[in-house]
């Protein structure tokens, strides 16, 4: 008996040692052309582990800085007065830190995290380990120059990922108003310096834009679905896309892109379906007008009863051992108190305003995108976004191999019907309706956020939002749900989802005009898609230039500008001469309320307004002359090639010509530039562009990442795809194991621990 007992004990000890030797995290990373990683693991935790390690190899410094941002540590490391981009604006670090330290509720996020799926938890926890593994392997003194031995580089925890996810969820809503939340103070209190310009999202000037198309079998000649993804995102910072291919054998196999800290594909394709996203016109927050107590501006009245605002004390550490800056943030049952300098939305002795955000605490997005990547058709994608309401602020556009095309404008939005908005309006609501949905904060019944523990409580159900599946096509360029195919406008829904039968942007109109022309010529195929997305036509130019030039002979003082404009091909290609002159002119002229002869007509939204109003011709030519003077003063020729004006600098100083132009001029391939010496450089616009079809073996995808994979200037992949984009060339993405093996570059990386 003792012999058997000893043998069993020995076997048990050996087995325990063998089990202990098995790695908890394991992944392989295979790189193909343009440094695209193909990450494979047998476990969900291994997926997160491998994705984080691969991302850190390409963009560690940028991600490390982002973790410092969401932790509210920028002032300590970079100084309180320095600025960074937060949401839509440049914001000083002190304001940024105040917002993140005061507005992100970690205890609540931790509680919410415990209710997420096991798969989501494993992926995110694996991401934390993978990021830290890269830092350990590399060491602080061997990191890229931008963050080598930097004080802000550190190991991360799950809390860092929770903060980062919360920031991404609020990107197109509360984050745009972050300075107004961080600096809100009652009358009589010390008012923080207003160093940030708050920009409310505007549909015509969206800085987070995009185009997306899904073509069904009727348009492709029953060749199955075809998808074009053309998101317009920043060229700098953590909202840049990064290409990846993630495989968990038998459960998940998707390729596409994600943002900084994204543990899997959020926009891309699998073997049966492809999807893309565009920023929706829906509003994801409401403002509440508060009536304050006559005795105390931090007490507000609800149903005739006084309610004290809650306060949160925030301490922001300063550099070099300086005393921390103390701030107080104020909140109500309707959310944080917010002010918008220069508008009536302020804090007085009698009134204040609060913001309630549908995406606050939205942790459902991780499971939503995980399930989208596993979908077999567009119907399953619609079901996922409808069940979870986890998509934060983007339309979902998808095509499948069966030839179905989906547009789902289904996101996390406040559960306010048209009747609710009308009943809870204030005398001031109509005056600001073009910017925000303003509700009455003096009545408890106007609080759409319920106290139920159901995370979907208070949100607008998918049945009251917009979704359609067609066999011809659907498309979106950031206008509202009501037209994604001009042959079948959608019924009127809640105003919270966007305008109905209102004027479309020129980019949306251009989209419909060019798409209809393309499908009218025969079955729509990949070549047609490439022409459509990179045609660089300007609808504004096609409507305006000829009648404008007809005015020139009467005003010889503008002859030089007119001559330069007359030689322009009406496109924003790199060899287009005069494009910069028109762009500068149009920026001055487009806001003229008397610009068109034919006003907008809801029954003909694609073709109205139109016809340049020439009765004010001298004012139009003055705008042209003013634009010409500014360009000449900058040392740029009026007929300079667009590719000489809009460039991206490669390491070593080489200027890479960038095609694409302003969306406000009706250019589908949108690029918004910031001024630099000698011209412009892109700051926002076409980023990851994919064209996906399906054959019997799987997806066939051509793609390009306009700004390339790496943010490290020392990397050979800092500008390699940018060169490709400049030449309008495409990269066929390897997807099957055989294709990946054939395209492999360098040795496979295997990591485990």
| Low-pLDDT residue intervals, each spanning 5 or more residues | 1-20, 201-207
Number of helices: 22
Give the helix level as a range of percent.
25-40%
What is Rg?
Answer: 27 Å
Count the strands? 32
Task: Tell me the fraction of residues in β-strands, as a range.
Answer: 15-25%
Largest sheet: 10 strands, mixed
SS-based structural class? alpha+beta
Alpha-carbon distance between the termini? 39 Å
The order of strands across the largest sheet is: 21-19-18-10-9-8-7-2-1-32
Shape: globular
What's the mean pLDDT score?
93
Description of the structure:
It is built from 22 helices and 32 strands. The protein has 753 residues and is α+β, with helices and mostly antiparallel strands. Helix 2 packs across helix 6, helix 5 (106-113) packs across helix 7 (158-169) and helix 10 (365-372) packs antiparallel against helix 11 (378-388). The model is unreliable at 1-20 and 201-207 (pLDDT under 50).
Strand and helix layout:
Elements: H1 2-21, E1 26-32, E2 36-40, H2 44-70, H3 74-78, E3 83-86, E4 89-92, H4 93-103, H5 106-113, H6 118-138, H7 158-169, H8 178-182, E5 209-215, H9 217-220, E6 226-234, E7 242-248, E8 252-258, E9 267-269, E10 273-279, E11 285-291, E12 299-302, E13 305-308, E14 310-316, E15 325-332, E16 335-337, E17 351-357, H10 365-372, H11 378-388, E18 394-400, E19 405-409, H12 418-423, H13 429-432, E20 438-440, E21 466-470, E22 473-476, H14 506-520, H15 526-534, H16 539-550, H17 559-566, H18 579-589, E23 596-598, E24 610-612, H19 617-633, H20 642-645, E25 647-649, E26 655-657, E27 671-676, E28 679-686, E29 688-695, E30 698-705, H21 720-726, E31 731-732, H22 737-743, E32 749-752
Parallel strand pairs: 2-7, 11-20
Antiparallel strand pairs: 1-2, 1-32, 3-4, 5-6, 5-22, 6-28, 6-29, 7-8, 8-9, 9-10, 10-18, 11-17, 12-13, 14-15, 15-16, 16-17, 18-19, 19-21, 23-24, 25-26, 27-28, 29-30, 30-31
Helix pairs in contact: 2-6, 5-7, 10-11, 18-19
């Amino acid at each position: 008996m003792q012999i058997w007992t000893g043998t069993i004990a020995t076997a048990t000890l050996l087995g325990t040692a063998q089990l202990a030797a098995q790695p908890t995290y394991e992944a392989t990373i295979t790189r193909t052309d343009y440094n695209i990683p193909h990450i494979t693991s047998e476990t969900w935790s291994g997926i997160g582990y491998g994705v984080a390690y691969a991302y850190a190899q390409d963009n560690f410094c940028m991600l490390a800085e982002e973790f410092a941002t969401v932790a509210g540590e920028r002032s300590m490391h970079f100084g309180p007065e320095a600025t960074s981009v937060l949401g839509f604006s440049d914001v000083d670090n002190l304001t940024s830190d105040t917002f993140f330290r005061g507005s992100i509720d970690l205890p609540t996020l931790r509680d919410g995290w415990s209710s997420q799926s096991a798969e989501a938890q494993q992926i995110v926890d694996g991401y934390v380990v993978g990021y830290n593994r890269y830092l350990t392997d590399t060491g602080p003194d061997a990191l890229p120059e931008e963050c080598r031995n930097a004080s802000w580089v550190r190991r991360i925890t799950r809390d860092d990922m929770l903060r980062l996810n919360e920031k991404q969820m609020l990107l197109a809503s509360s984050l745009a108003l972050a300075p107004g939340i961080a600096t809100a103070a009652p009358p009589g209190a010390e008012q923080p310096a207003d160093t940030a310009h708050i920009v409310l999202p505007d549909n015509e000037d969206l800085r987070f834009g995009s185009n997306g198309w899904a073509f069904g079998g009727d348009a492709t000649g029953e060749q199955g679905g075809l998808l074009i993804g053309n998101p317009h995102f920043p060229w700098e910072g953590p909202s840049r896309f990064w290409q990846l291919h993630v495989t968990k054998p038998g459960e998940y196999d998707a390729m596409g892109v994600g943002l900084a800290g994204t543990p899997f594909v959020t926009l891309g394709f699998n073997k049966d379906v492809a999807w893309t996203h565009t920023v929706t016109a829906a509003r994801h927050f409401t403002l509440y007008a508060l009536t304050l107590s006559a005795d105390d501006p931090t007490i507000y009245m609800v149903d005739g009863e006084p309610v004290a605002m809650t306060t949160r004390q925030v301490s922001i550490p300063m550099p070099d051992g300086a005393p921390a800056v103390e701030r107080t943030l104020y909140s109500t049952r309707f959310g944080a108190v917010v002010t918008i300098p220069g508008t009536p939305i302020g804090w007085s002795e009698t009134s204040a305003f609060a913001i309630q955000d549908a995406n606050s605490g939205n942790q459902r997005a991780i499971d939503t995108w995980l399930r989208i990547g596993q979908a077999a058709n567009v119907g399953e994608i619609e079901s996922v976004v409808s069940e979870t309401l986890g998509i934060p602020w983007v339309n979902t556009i998808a095509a499948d191999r069966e030839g179905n095309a989906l547009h789902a404008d289904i996101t996390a939005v406040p559960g306010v019907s048209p009747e609710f908005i009308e009943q809870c309006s204030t005398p001031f609501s109509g005056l600001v309706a073009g910017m925000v949905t303003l509700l009455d904060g003096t009545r408890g019944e106007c609080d759409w956020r319920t106290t139920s523990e159901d995370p979907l409580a208070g949100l607008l159900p998918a049945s009251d939002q917009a979704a359609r599946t067609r066999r011809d096509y659907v498309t979106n360029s950031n206008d509202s749900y009501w037209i994604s195919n001009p042959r079948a406008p959608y019924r009127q829904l809640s105003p919270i989802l966007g305008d109905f039968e209102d004027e479309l942007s020129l980019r949306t109109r251009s989209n419909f005009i060019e798409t209809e022309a393309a499908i009218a010529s025969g079955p729509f195929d990949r070549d047609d898609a490439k022409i459509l997305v990179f045609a660089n036509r300007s609808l504004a130019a096609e409507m305006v230039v000829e009648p404008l030039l007809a005015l020139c002979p009467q005003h010889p003082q503008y002859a030089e500008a007119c001559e330069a404009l007359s030689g322009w091909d009406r496109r924003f290609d790199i060899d287009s001469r005069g494009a910069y002159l028109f762009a500068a002119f149009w920026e001055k002229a487009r806001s003229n309320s008397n610009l068109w002869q034919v006003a907008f007509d809801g029954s003909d939204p694609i073709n109205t307004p139109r016809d340049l109003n020439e009765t004010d011709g001298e004012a139009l030519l003055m705008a042209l002359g003013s634009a010409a003077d500014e360009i000449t003063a900058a040392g740029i020729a009026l007929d300079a090639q667009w590719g000489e004006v809009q460039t991206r600098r490669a390491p070593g100083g080489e200027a890479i010509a960038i095609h694409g132009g302003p969306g406000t001029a009706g250019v589908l391939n949108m690029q918004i530039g910031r001024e630099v010496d000698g011209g412009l450089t892109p700051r926002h616009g076409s980023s990851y562009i994919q064209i996906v079809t399906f054959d019997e073996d799987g997806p066939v995808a051509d793609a390009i990442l306009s700004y390339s994979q790496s943010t490290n200037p020392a990397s050979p992949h800092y500008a390699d795809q940018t060169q490709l984009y400049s030449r309008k060339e495409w990269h066929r993405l390897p997807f099957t194991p055989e294709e990946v093996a054939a395209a492999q570059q360098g040795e496979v990386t295997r990591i485990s621990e």
